[in-house]
Amino acid sequence: MTHEITVIPGDGIGQEVTPAAVEVLEALEIDFEFHEAEAGDHVAEETGEALPEETYDLAASTDATLFGAAGETAADVILPLREAVDSFVNVRPAKAYPGVDALRPETDLVFLRENTEGVYSGHEDRLSDDLSTLTRVVTTSASERLAEFACDFVEDGEYDGFHIAHKANVMRETDGRFRDAVLEVADDRGVQTEEVLMDAFATHVCLDPTQFDVVACPNLAGDVLSDLAAGLVGGLGMLPSANVGPDRGLFEPVHGSAPDIAGEGVANPAATIISAAMLLEYLGHDEEGQAVRDAVEGVLEDGPRTPDLGGDASTEDVTAAILERLN
Ligand code: GGG
């Protein structure tokens, strides 16, 4: 069986780390057909449109998409792409790997970020020269969908339960709805939950990340708190993610386009290659996914490192070392 994969490098270092992950997938004995597609700032500059229809259609019809990074046009690229694969949750593991100089080496947690609504629903208005507004959308149905996924995730991974990070003491209606819906599903499913206010979570996770395993969050909170956790495990180059939908998925590093280093060939490919491992697992190739994870972990432990991890290796050096361990 051939897996059809859309590959969208996007902007900045996405152009460097995405080919690295494709090289790793190509090294496996799995039948892939890759469809390279364009999106991002550079496409908007040329055509006036950051996400061409054919790119959207490919993501919406292939088995999985590997995405690199979004820049200034993130709202026009990554949000519709997540919609194209009907992904209602963004799974963002934050794990400190042996050998990586992490602020909190004991960190090992997973964010389950609601992926369709909240303040990322796109309802922003400029009402006057002085006033702009944003409508925050929270539905019971999307919150329940996330909660069902969280319960399955906890049961499959044999976790004790999950935390719900929210700010329902202030956003009583929207985060209140999110919290109540998630609590009700977890209660019905007999899955333990613990609530934590998202601002307090930010402090607690820095002080002692071992308090947390699985954290379900509204959209913006999941985006921000997972970036914060990246700071605990060696930086944004370390966090992969899976945007999971019922029939297809979109896999991307958590980091953006990193314009400060784009074009230098020194971006850390680890997050994108681990995202490719998540893609493999999503498609049912658990063994190959684990082999890719083992190869990345081996290189992180005692192989060449990119400058973000204190080394002077290039993206290509690190990718070559990962491929060598894989073969
Ligand atoms: N590869 C992820 C990426 O491009 N991140 C940049 C960004 O702005 N992301 C917003 C989001 O993840 O919702």
TrEMBL record:
Q: Does the keyword Oxidoreductase apply?
A: yes
Record-linked InterPro entries: IsoPropMal-DH-like_dom
Mind telling me which SMART domains this protein's record contains? Iso_dh
- The answer to whether keyword Zinc-finger applies is no
Keywords annotated in UniProt:
Oxidoreductase
Q: Which residues form the Isopropylmalate dehydrogenase-like domain?
A: 4-322
Q: Which Pfam families match?
A: Iso_dh
Q: What is its EC number?
A: 1.1.1.85
Protein origin, superkingdom: Archaea
SUPFAM superfamilies assigned: Isocitrate/Isopropylmalate dehydrogenase-like
Which is one GO molecular function term here?
3-isopropylmalate dehydrogenase activity
Can you tell me which family this protein belongs to? Answer: Belongs to the isocitrate and isopropylmalate dehydrogenases family.
Q: This chain belongs to which protein, by name?
A: 3-isopropylmalate dehydrogenase
Q: Which gene encodes it?
A: leuB
